[in-house]
Amino acid sequence: MKSKILVTGGLGFIGSHTVVALQQQGFEVVIIDNLSNSSIDVLAGITKITQITPEFENIDLRNKEAVNEFFEKYDDVNGVIHFAASKAVGESVENPLLYYENNLSTLIYILQHLSKKDSANFIFSSSCTVYGQADSLPINENAPIKKAMSPYGNTKQIGEEIIKDTCKVHPNLSAISLRYFNPIGAHPSTEIGELPIGTPQNLVPFITQTAIGKREQLSVFGNDYPTSDGTCIRDYIHVMDLAKAHVVALQKLMNGNSESNYDVFNLGTGKGNSVLEVIESFQRSTGKKLAYKIVDRREGDITAAYADTHKANSVLNWRAEHSLDEALESAWKWEKKVFKKED
Ligand SMILES: NC(=O)c1ccc[n+]([C@@H]2O[C@H](COP(=O)([O-])OP(=O)(O)OC[C@H]3O[C@@H](n4cnc5c(N)ncnc54)[C@H](O)[C@@H]3O)[C@@H](O)[C@H]2O)c1
After folding, report:
1. Has this prediction a pTM greater than 0.70?
2. What is the whole-number distance in angstroms between the Cα of residue 12 and the centre of ligand 1?
3. Are the CB atoms for 15 and 243 separated by under 8 Å?
4. CB proximity list for 50: less than 8 A, separation 6 or greater
5. CA of 228 to the centre of ligand 1 (A)
6. I want to staple 329 with a disulfide (CB 3.0 to 4.6 A). Which of 190, 192, 250, 285 is the partner?
7. In testing the pocket of ligand 1, which one of 39, 63, 125 has its CB within 8 Å of the most ligand atoms?
8. How many Å apart are CA 121 and CA 119, to the nearest integer?
């Protein structure tokens, strides 16, 4: 019998790519999404790629009763990948209660249910933001957790603590927190990709929107950081690699051969690229010239972050395979498709 996996936020950017990867590995998927940051069209995109329409429930996970009803209806779910959350750092500063409610109450309601089951597997979307500006690079999983710089970042730190504490007293529950570095790119089919609402906060959607003409110019925030070219350094990981990592992490939990019932993994490429390097790579891989200007530093940006991926490489037997050029090329193909649709 196929295992049934609940993917919350499965119509979002990383969730939709993971649904595809799960289906392609033979898992049955049921998605919960309230469409607060995604479109129902994503379901058709997923179906086009895999020829399988996942089950879909339009539920707001803040509704505890609806969550309980869901688990009553789908009592055969034996794994949960929890993507659903709000993720805009700036918005979280302006509206902290929205973030604490949406990112933590949803997690608690799901764990309350899973902790009652004989056995349950749970994967949590965490972030490299928990490290802040790390003392040394690359960053491994033992690096200290720094004071969060935003309510959003804090929800990831608290979320991890909630899971760890729950696993301690519920040995029936096995969980992994995956700390993503900077997910970019789109499915090569261009059926699914990133759909930022409003002004993108991340570099790559800003680049593609500028290149397509939706925005006049890209602002590079600061070129006086202590890096080789003065711009900030991040670890950009193709969403296809990220999606695959969720499948292997889930399989690891299901195999039941882990030393502990709670673990944490970095997901990145292990390589840092500066903003100017990303711009260069974009221009090289797409042949598009990009208009950009250097402006003042942006508050809250750290200088550099990239992952030590040895733990995921050895324990999960996973590594990122796609290059930065490939990721940017796919993001560009996706942007062109979105633009054509909007036209
Ligand atoms: N994209 C990144 O750069 C990044 C980096 C690190 C961590 N993360 C984390 O990864 C996860 C997925 O990120 P993403 O980029 O795919 O985001 P996304 O916004 O594209 O996807 C999240 C999905 O969850 C849904 N959702 C939100 N609140 C919900 C609720 N209460 N009930 C039901 N559905 C709800 C949204 O409609 C959306 O489809 C998030 O937890 C995010 O914090 C993302």
Report:
1. yes
2. 6
3. no
4. 20, 23, 24
5. 33
6. 285
7. 125
8. 7
**196 closest CA partner among 217, 210, 178, 179:** 210
Phi, psi of 271 (to 5 degrees): -120, 140
Q: Residue 5: what are its φ and ψ, rounded to 5°?
A: -115, 130
Neighbours of 314 (CB within 10 A): 10
The dihedral sign for the CA sequence 135, 141, 144, 145: positive
pLDDT tens for the chain, residues 1 to 343: 679 999 999 999 999 999 999 999 999 999 999 999 999 999 999 999 999 999 999 999 999 999 999 999 999 999 999 999 999 998 999 999 999 999 999 999 999 999 999 999 999 999 999 999 999 999 999 999 999 999 999 999 999 999 999 999 999 999 999 999 999 999 999 999 999 888 888 999 999 999 999 999 999 999 999 999 999 999 999 999 999 999 999 999 999 888 899 999 999 999 999 999 999 999 999 999 999 999 999 988 999 999 999 999 999 999 999 999 999 999 999 999 998 887 7
Q: Look up residue 144 and give its two tokens.
A: 């200290």
* DSSP secondary structure code for residue 144 in this structure: P
**6, 37, 179: residue to mutate for ligand 1 pocket, most atoms within 8 A of CB:** 37
SS3 193: coil
Structural Rg of the chain based on CA atoms: 19
- Do the beta carbons of residue 308 and residue 320 sit within 8 Å? no
CA distance 20 to 51: 10
Instruction: Compute the distance between CA of residue 209 and CA of residue 288 in angstroms, rounded to an integer.
Output: 12
d(CA 118, CA 301): 43
